[in-house]
Amino acid sequence: MITLRQLRFLVTLSDTLNFSRAAERCLVTQPTLSAGIKELEDRLGAQLFERTRQSVMMTALGEDVARRARSVLVEAAAIETLAKAHRNPGEGELRFGSIPTVGPYLIPAALPLVRTRFPKLKLFLREELTESLIEGLGQGRLDLILIALPFETGSFEVAPLFEDGYMLATPANAPAPALGEDVLETSSRLMLLEKGHCLQHHALKALPNRHLEQDESFSATSLTTLISMVSEGLGITLLPELAIDAGIVPEGTIKLTPLPRACPRRIALAWRPGSARKTVFLQLGEALKAARRNQIRAASLRS
Q: Which of helix, strand or coil describes residue 214?
């Protein structure tokens, strides 16, 4: 009979294509992992990997079996989680992933509320791009993700939290008549995050009645880098209000202009359907919304 242990060996080896690294990840010796793979191949009566002294490659059948094995392992883990969550849904580990343009500006503000509500819940936080988060959620590597919509979420359950608008960021010495939506359409120096960040795509679609083009000679890996470039007079950008309210912009470094007609991105939580922790996820969502409301109030007092 095929065992979960053998499937775990298979999936890990398919990820690493290296017996030594796969054994290390599985916390077993290399001979133990090799024997487990051989037992699985014997059971199936087919070769899953092609081995040479220099490399390890998967056969076409091996790739197909590994893909199905991932689903089996996810379901097996879900069974364990279901049992644990039935006993104590607000306790234990929770692997929480977030995109880097939301998590750092929202989760820290919500943590005191989360800890008060769930004192025995251990959050393990990850920052990744949206596609990686979606993949991690589907593979069972993550339990809950914080993303920005619109984005294709497949069959996952989604709980919208709030809308996040934009402000135009220009150099501090930019002349007042040049500010506003017109400068976005005419500027050849609209600097955004690199492709792969959903904010890059969302920003270009923020003003549907205007044709926005990114300056292809530059792309940033973080909002902090964008702010630094704008402060040096090298271009303009769009910044999400969430990050601004969280204090990402040092006072006096750049000029911020509201864009009330910009289409906001929608911040949301997503999880696998049927999760036993749905109630916990929804309560975490309420904590995130409360933290956002507190940020908005604090920002209005500062202004």
A: coil
CB of 144 within 8 A of CB of 96? yes
> Is the pTM for the entire model greater than 0.85?
no
* Residue type, position 116, single letter: T
Q: Are 193 and 102 in contact (CB under 8 A)?
A: no
Q: How sure is the predictor about 177, in pLDDT bands with cuts at 50, 70 and 90?
A: very low
Give the whole-angstrom CA distance, residue 240 versus residue 166. 4
Q: Both 155 and 136 in a single domain?
A: yes
Note the pLDDT of residue 221: 85
- For the stretch 211-249, pLDDT in tens is 677 777 777 888 999 999 899 888 888 899 999 999 999
Name the 3-class secondary structure at 176.
Answer: helix
Type and span of the H or E element at 149: strand 144-149
Q: Are 127 and 193 in the same domain?
A: no
H or E element at residue 64: helix 60-87
What are the two backbone dihedrals, phi and then psi, of residue 167, each rounded to the nearest 5 degrees?
A: -130, 150
CA–CA dist 226, 239 (Å, integer): 9
Do 206 and 165 contact (CB within 8 A), yes or no?
no
Beta bridge partners of residue 126, listed in sequence order: 97
Identify whether residues 243 and 181 lie together within a single domain: yes
Same domain, residue pair 279 and 149: yes
Residues 281 and 245 in one domain: no
Backbone phi, then psi, for 80, in 5-degree steps? -65, -45
> Taking Cα atoms as reference points, which of 160, 168, 129, 122 lies closest to residue 143?
122
What is the pLDDT confidence band of residue 14, given thresholds at 50, 70 and 90? very high
- pLDDT given at position 183: 59
Q: Is the confidence at residue 131, as pLDDT, over 80?
A: yes
Whole-angstrom Cα distance, residue 279 to residue 224?
35
